[in-house]
Specification:
Blueprint: E1 2-13, E2 20-31, E3 35-39, H1 46-53, E4 61-66, E5 69-70, H2 76-86, E6 87-90, H3 102-112, H4 118-130, H5 146-158, E7 164-168, H6 176-193, E8 196-200, E9 212-217, E10 220-225, H7 228-240
Parallel strand pairs: 3-8, 3-9, 6-7, 7-8
Antiparallel strand pairs: 1-2, 1-4, 4-5, 9-10
The structure holds adenosine-5'-diphosphate and magnesium ion.
Magnesium ion binds at residues 46-47.
């Protein structure tokens, strides 16, 4: 079952001579229970795509369909409500509430959705524990490292069990071991709870935890890697290079031709 669909989505920033086409006629779909990595060089349109999927940014053309509803056509108020219920996201700037501690930041999503009860409070602390923050529940964001803040943001994105979970560079400020732990847990939760997940990453090593890799370049999908062996080869090459590689510098040779996807 398709949880999320982008249909011929285009985003143009600015007008006239200043117009920048950040996303250019992109179509794809993500199934429930599927975890996808969105990769590509800086400026290729990944964050813009994610912000449109999150309903934070309206496409110039095209449709975003989540749980059967066209997000791109909703009024601002409806979109905000819909987002709270159906979409979980963590963006590069984590936007944690500074005066709430880690646990309260996660519980906030439950509160906003009217789901703050004893059982869900327990789930919130269990989730933070699973992300390695069991001893940091009472710390405010200012008392947490960048990586710890990022993990709180991930817990917050998942706690209200949204259909769709979106994360922009969730490992950007994590060391290698933590990065693996966080993305592995992220993948487990998406699969266990049958959500649709999209992670933007520049670290191809993290692709080993996903079911499909969508590569963007110049605002378009340049390649889709769905074959397990190809995904592992991609992640393995990045691992062998001992660290994050520029994601699509063309040096990574993969079996198969670039595929342009219409739907899935
Ligand atoms: P990525 O996340 O892959 O680095 P972005 O989606 O951030 O790519 O950016 C895609 C393109 O759109 C880039 O050329 C960027 O400069 C441009 N862009 C992004 N945000 C804006 C904005 N708010 N106004 C104008 N141009 C933007
Ligand atoms: Mg970006």
């Amino acid at each position: 079952m398709i949880a999320l669909e982008a249909l011929n989505v285009t985003k143009v920033y600015g007008t006239g001579v200043n117009a920048v086409t950040a996303v250019n006629d992109v179509s794809f779909g993500i199934r429930r229970g599927e975890f996808v990595a969105l990769v590509g060089p800086s400026g290729s349109g990944k964050t813009t795509m994610l912000a449109m999927l999150a309903g934070l940014l309206r496409p110039t053309h095209g449709q975003i369909v989540i749980a059967g509803q066209d997000v791109s056509k909703m009024s601002e108020a409806k979109r905000t409500r819909f987002r709270g219920q159906y979409i979980g996201f963590s963006f590069q700037a984590n936007n944690l509430v500074p005066f709430l501690n880690a646990l309260e930041n996660v519980e906030l999503m439950l509160r906003l959705n009217g789901k703050l009860n004893r059982a869900n409070k327990q789930r919130a602390s269990d989730l933070l524990e699973r992300l390695g923050l069991g001893d940091r529940l009472k710390n405010k964001p200012g008392q947490l490292s960048g990586g710890q803040q990022q993990r709180v943001a991930i817990a917050r994105a998942l706690i209200h069990e949204p259909e769709v979970v979106l994360a922009d560079e969730p490992t950007a400020s994590l060391d290698s071991e933590r990065a693996h732990q966080v993305v592995r847990t992220f993948a487990e939760l998406i699969h266990e709870q049958n959500r649709a997940g999209i992670m933007v990453t520049h670290d191809l090593r993290m692709c080993k935890y996903v079911d499909r890799v969508i590569q963007m370049s110049d605002g378009q999908i340049s390649r889709i890697i769905a074959d397990r062996a190809d995904i592992l080869r991609l992640a393995g090459m990045a691992e062998a290079a001992d660290g994050p590689m520029p994601s699509t510098n063309g040096k990574a040779t993969l079996a198969g031709e670039p595929v342009v996807l219409r739907g899935i």
